[in-house]
Design a protein that fits this description.
Layout (H helix, E strand, L loop, with lengths): L8 E6 L4 E7 L2 E2 L1 E6 L2 E8 L2 E3 L5 E6 L2 E9 H4 L2 E2 L14 E2 L11 E2 L3 E2 L2 H7 L13 H14 L12 H30 L9 E4 L3 H12 L3 E3 L4
Parallel strand pairs: 1-13, 4-6, 9-12, 13-14
Antiparallel strand pairs: 1-2, 2-3, 2-6, 4-5, 7-8, 10-11
Helix pairs in contact: 2-3, 2-4, 2-5, 3-4, 4-5
């Protein structure tokens, strides 16, 4: 708090698998019983609410539709982020594989040990700045999300005039929309619990995955945001 000079805001510490969310008021982090995955635990500590979505969260596919993002992450599945590859060449061995491990059924991956994450989607949509820890290769992300798009049902919400890039961008937006919905639910709960004036709320991102989650979430909520220095 001293380093970032935060006096008031909602802090989102975004890792690879989960996001911890806490309220800062008058320069202090608020304290009460912690909540993990929506369940209150009997431990008096920082009011830190943990959500199972973050920078490495993977899309889950059922019947050719994205039905969820997370809680499985690339880290837990032992897969690499496509956006951190220097370059991707789509060839015969560049194929989707929906089951990277027996416990990950339905989570999208690409043969060869790679996957699409929220970080890949955010890079593709230009939400990640070069100075952000989550900054990656937009071209590689586009190719991988293009493979994902090819496994999905035809996009009925897109007109024929839309380009292939529009379809890929639409899939990236869908990934972030599903991921951010979980964050938004928790942030709104904190706003209600602590009677925070929504027009005065600001989201502050920390952790390596901050830029993958916070900018899109803030935009969806109509709130200002900042990414902490050296997050």
């Amino acid at each position: 708090l001293l380093y970032v000079k935060v006096s008031d805001g909602i802090f989102l510490e975004v890792g690879g698998t989960s996001t911890d969310i806490a309220v800062i008021r008058d320069g202090r982090a608020l304290v009460r019983s912690a909540v993990i995955g929506g369940h209150k635990i009997f431990l008096r500590t920082l009011d830190s609410r943990t959500v199972g979505v973050a920078g490495g969260s993977m899309p889950r596919i059922v019947n050719s539709k994205i039905v969820d993002v997370g809680p499985r992450s690339a880290h837990i599945a032992g897969l690499a982020y496509s956006c951190f590859a220097e370059s991707l060449v789509v060839g015969a061995d560049f194929k989707p594989a929906l089951t990277p491990a027996i416990t990950d059924e339905g989570y999208f991956s690409i043969e060869g040990g790679m996957t699409v994450t929220t970080t890949c989607a955010a890079n593709l949509l230009g939400l990640v700045r070069p100075q952000d820890w989550a900054f990656g290769n937009k071209g590689s992300a586009a190719k991988a999300i293009g493979v994902l798009a090819g496994t999905l049902d035809a996009r009925t919400d897109l007109k024929p005039a839309h380009t292939e890039l529009s379809v890929v961008n639409s899939v990236a937006e869908e990934i972030l929309k599903l991921a951010s919905s979980k964050i938004i639910k928790t942030v709104n709960s904190l706003i209600k619990d602590y009677k925070i004036e929504k027009q005065q709320a600001v989201l502050i991102g920390g952790g390596g995955g901050a830029a993958a989650i916070v900018p899109f979430t803030a935009s969806a909520m109509g709130l200002p945001f900042e990414i902490a220095d050296n997050h």
